[in-house]
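Pasting as-is:
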Amino acid sequence: MTTLVVCLDRTDDVGRKTGLQSPIVGWEAVRALVTDIGLADPEDSGVNTLLETLRVGQNLRDENEEAIVAVVSGDRESMVSADRAVARQLDDLIAQHDPDSAVVVIDSGEDERLVPIVESRVQVDSVDRVVVRQARDIESTYYLLKQFLADEELRQTILVPLGLTLLVFPILAMVVAPAEGAAAITTVIGLFLLYKGFSIDEIITGFAHQVRESLYSGQVSVVTYVVAAGLTLVGFFVGALGVSNLDGSTGIGIPAVQFAFDSVPWLTMAGLTASAGRLLDEIIGEDPVRRSYLNLPFIAVAVGLVIRGFSAYFLEQQQLLSSIAVVETELGPLTVEGFSLAPGERLAVFVISAILVSLIGAWIATAVSSSDDDSTPGSGSGPGTGDGNPGTRPQSELTDGGPGSNQLASTTPPSADVEVVTDADSTEFSNGETETGQHAGSGSSDTRADSNTDSELESEGGGESDDGREHTQTAASEHEAEDR
């Protein structure tokens, strides 16, 4: 069993301090690297990480396991380029050594973000986090503060918000009441903590990257998303107008229902437009259309019908919405009398319509998925096969020594091989009739090695040996006559 003990360095401290290019592979190479980094920066925790890597590799070797010690570093340009550099080096290591598993050694949360990259390529049995023990005295505290102030990322994350808070609070205290100023500052700090806690900056960066990739690839969904955003704004605006027309003494529930009733048609169209664009991208692409994308437009319409029906029911109960009335209609000899739907009947119509729309979407998605599965190559029976898996039986007939290989061996005439071998031997040995005949007999026996019956093997081998001896004796007699 081969285990890859890899030390991860996302910020490329190894290359920056030693000038070496990663990956660095081998016990002696990593051991020499410990000395180089220790001389360049004795205070760096990376020295302890490298020593831990060597210790883990030594323990695995003591357990009679093959351990490959390596150091993988990222890039200093950006986090994306660093992750890609680590992934590329891991691919090279795996292709060269083919490890069965890996043990990852890290010393910081920054390096821990590389663990999923390793897990996507090889099985990770353990993640070894190195924590350096330090003295808890005043001097070490001062040293930690000094190191903290020297870190640019930590300064921007902690010192800048703290400085802004101390700067804004006196200004707010002079303009407004101190309590209101403290409340405003607390709100801003809370929003900042939520921003960092939920990694909103990374989400925004990923969204911008996805939008850029969509624009470069020419996806239809980019346009439909913009249209959907516009329809969403229109829906919010229409809902706000509907709420503004209500009486102010209606409380909170009725305005919320009125907002939902007025905005749901526009929001449903926005969802339908966005899902249709995503579905078009799937249809244009080379991969089969997934079932979820086929069903998504119908789900959007069904949800819109349900919300519209319930909001209309509540508004009609409050007499803020009139009932649906159907006027009298004449269709030739038929006359449809006018009627109006009660609130419950109206709600039932919307709910039943939503269920029908969702069922239609599920049926279409199932039908399209079934047709894609039937048209997939290799799913049905092909010509020349006895089952529904084409290509399997021809391969087994040629490779696994089954009936097909025996049949091919039986169709080969053994006498041709015996005759060729006998002629060649007779030209080389003029006085070796017996040896040539024995060789011919053994050749015929090898030719019949794939026969199914042992008795047939012996009889055929013996008969062909006699024929080979007679042919050899005849050739030798003719050769002696020519010599005389």
